[in-house]
Design brief:
The chain has 14 helices and 18 strands. With about 450 residues, it is an alpha+beta fold. The longest helix has about 50 residues.
Length: about 450
Amino acid sequence: MSKPDLDSIRHSKTELENQVAELQQRVLELEDLAKANESREQTAQRFDLALWATNSSIWDWDVQQKLFWSSPGNQLLYDRGDDEITEPFDIEDDADPWPQHLHPDDREPTLQHLRDHLAKDTALDLEYRYRMPDGEYRWIRSFGRAVRAPDGTPLRVVGSSADITKRKRAEDEAGRFREAVDNASEGFALYDADERFVFANKRYQELYPEVGHLLIPGVQRETIRQAYFATGAMPNVLGRADEFTKEFSQRLISPGSFDLQLANGTWVKYSDHVLPDGGIVCVRTDITDIKQRDAYYQALFDSETVGVTITRADGSYVATNSVYQRMLGYSGAELLAMRWQDVSHADEIGRIDSDIHAMRAGTGSGLIFEKRFAPKDGGIVWARLNMALIHDESSAEPHQFALVENITQQVEAKQALRDSELRFRTIFEDEAIGIASVSMDGVMLQCNPAWSDMLGYEGGGA
């Protein structure tokens, strides 16, 4: 019996151990691979769950294959259901549905933006209007980035989209509001809570051209104010800058408004309002015309030649001047407790009231009429009124302003002339003696019946 080959046995054992080790290593690799696959599956599941939970509008455009993958959220965004989809997509194909749904004004700029991103790697951030299945346009914002080959060739573009219709509508409303403010007749300026300049409309800048170069966001209000005072545009400042600054600041923080006249003669009403966040809205109104009108009305009130009244819509008096008061025999205090109807002839109140109502309704620019007054001591006072509407800040409705001219003497003179003519006509017609009037060249002008009968003519002619 031969002896066993120990070297061969040891060699076989070593090979077997190596094979076992390799098998064990392979098992470990397979286990790691299984874990990795499981991890990828879990990641994919988590991604799908995230898309479902957030309705994220994500898309993936395969540029080379001309295919477009759209997530469920992206489908919902465009009202195309809630199932993800992969479909053909080519921006250069005129028949492709997506470009056809773009607003005509946005189509070419949007497509060119995409072309530029593919060719030049420009930023991809689009805002465009897209027509939904119901025909309504919505504003969409899409942004993304191209994945490129080493040579720069675009392989795919990945991105997301969002509905920004509400934001766009808010921007439009804000734009319209900004335009309205910018074109308002009053001047508006806005400062933040730290009194730094934010905004001023056109009218505000027109009122203060001396500091237009300082109306820049961030400039302190006090800097602008002191620069304006230094220009001499406000005459009350001269020689008393510090004192005036204190007075001016105190007025601004006090309730209500106040008026100041600038060196160029312009009258401005100042009014500041503190916002909830501490910001300040400054309102400046040019009241030069109002001041001039008030001066004109005051001059009329002070006049001793014509009566002046201001009455409300119901006829009650707001103010009367001394001429009007003497005309009717009432004091100013007495008239303030009365209405114009109380001192008017009863037969004329309805007609005049109707005419005033028509004027207030906007069917007439003013009124000129004659009427009878019933003065305090009795009798009749005839007057000619020139009436118009005026607006007063203290009243929501306009007042009636009237110039009242006493024409009693003219009316009485005309009536006396008519009475005289009537008496003459009566005597002329009834007199038994023939009476005739002849022109300087001998032409018979008129004759009475007695003259006609005496000469045998008819009709009172010659």
